[in-house]
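User: Round two. Same drill as before: sequence, then structure, for each protein.

Assistant: Same drill it is. First protein:
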Amino acid sequence: MAIAYKNARAAVGTSYATVYTCPASTTAVILLAQVANVDGANSADVSVQWLDSSAASVATRIVETVPVGADGAINVLDNGPLVLETGDQLQVKASATGDLEISLSITEIT
């Protein structure tokens, strides 16, 4: 068993986009999913979901339209880590383009 520490990041648009896909023969533990609002004047909403590849890529919402205040940040996994299996994806969208950025801290186990 090998353990690797990874990160992923993305600017968040107004349609769901994949930030991270769990690689083949891997289990991933998302330890942190920090969403920062880089707009100094306006709040923006964030929605995050994961797609379960073993269940026909069914989407399960983690948070839906949660406000992130101007110059603020939230950890959408504040109640614990999220485990992803091979092919599972973490996706994110915002209410406004250019306001939000997401950063992930990931442990991959192969």
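Second protein:
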Amino acid sequence: MMHQLKKLGLLAGMTATLALSGGRALAQQQQTETVELFPVCNNVTLTWPSGTPMTEVVAAITPTSNLRAIWRFNNTRQRFEGFSPQFPEQSDLRTANRLDAVFICMIGPGMLTRPLI
């Protein structure tokens, strides 16, 4: 009984989502953390899986109205690539990679809720 209670206590701090795969339910547990964003360009590490659309990263920033742009330096091309929620079609930073170092530029304070790794 005590062992089962300990298991429940461990699960209490996790956000669980349910996914269907081949007709059976799989429980996926994802922990998150929040990062305070200041009204400047904040140097932040992204923790989403590689290939995550930047729109998903943007959706994790509150308030989204304070976000101006996200910038990443492409060392191979020796230039910055950016994503702007105001101009997503013209943005050349389309996806995030796990452990990308980016600058999240804000005009006001905000929060980023990212996956915990």
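The mean pLDDT is 83.

User: Perfect.
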